[in-house]
Amino acid sequence: MKSSIRHYSLSDNLKRVISGERETVFRLLESRFCVEIRTRLPGLDIVPLDDADMSGVLAVLDQLKIAARNGEILDARQLERMLGPKESSPAEAIPDTPVFRNRFGVSVSAKTPAQAELVKAVESNDIIFAKGPAGTGKTFLAVTLAVASLERGEAERICLVRPAVEAGESLGFLPGDLKEKIAPYLRPIHDSLSELLPAEKLHRYEETGAIEVAPLAYMRGRTLKRAFIILDEAQNTTTAQMKMFLTRLGPHSKAIITGDTSQVDLAKGQTSGLEHAMKILKGIRGIAEVEFSATDVLRHHLVKDILLAYENNELKK
């Protein structure tokens, strides 16, 4: 039996802030929790449909209201990324154990078999290669695992690095100070961190050096102890850069290396450090490989079809 309509108290101002442009946040909640959200009267009227998850939608609305009062606003795209797909693949059971609870109290957990494999690989290995197309959540999950490790006290610091290929790793000619020079290359990592941690805590971690976001070139000559290190966009490293990065690993440290070997931006004739490392390090104990595919894509449903079409086209060549 369907439960009765629930009225959710919400001021007109908060309603306007939370709803998003053209009420896209409410439309997402309707789809995700099988409810109808009526907004014309004061507050919200939530009408349960078949298979409605009333407790789920109320919990998310509570978190959105708290966040809005604190000046932190989620748009529909960010919320969809946090909630993940409504249904997992029926072919494989995916553990729903939360990896971490983000700044809004929403649990982040593996959403696909490959993501679950990555979580498991981190438990028993110190170096993990996560290879696959964009949109599979591999970088966001890697950052989540790193933040969870820091919060539990297992790691003393997080180092998040990317190769600045477009600038040839020579950032001196770009305008601005160091932070301004590298910001465009590191923005995706910053976005992931800001979804996971409150702004004040993130700022404190960065100020104390507990979280460091930097271009790959700035890792040279260092040894990182008790650290959780992530190298993103690793397909754009040279073999020398990859060797340099892997040898930064100190005692009690872990590293996740993510990349998409179909999107190499290196100069013609240069070998991808990711492809080379995965080939020569295969089979070494303590090093794991997790491969993501188009079926793991968590973006718009057409992205999955587009990636599959490109993969099929490559196979015909």
Jot down its keywords.
11 helices; globular; three-stranded antiparallel beta sheet; alpha/beta; Rossmann fold; 2 domains
SSE succession: EHHEEHHEEHEHEHHEEHEHEH
CATH superfamily of the largest domain: P-loop containing nucleotide triphosphate hydrolases
Radius of gyration: 21 Å
On the 0 to 100 scale, the average pLDDT is: 83
The backbone outline, from C-alpha atoms, is globular
The CATH topology assignment of the largest domain is Rossmann fold
Helix content: 40-55%
Strand fraction equals 15-25%
Label the structural class: alpha/beta
What is the top-level CATH class of the largest domain?
Alpha Beta
Compute the separation of the termini in Å: 55 Å
* Second CATH tier, the architecture of the largest domain: 3-Layer(aba) Sandwich
Work out the helix count: 11
The overall number of domains is 2
Q: What is the topology, as strand order, of the major beta sheet?
A: 8-7-9-10-6-11
Stretches where pLDDT falls below 50 for ≥5 residues?
A: 88-92, 166-171
Based on DSSP secondary structure assignment, what is the total number of beta strands?
Answer: 11
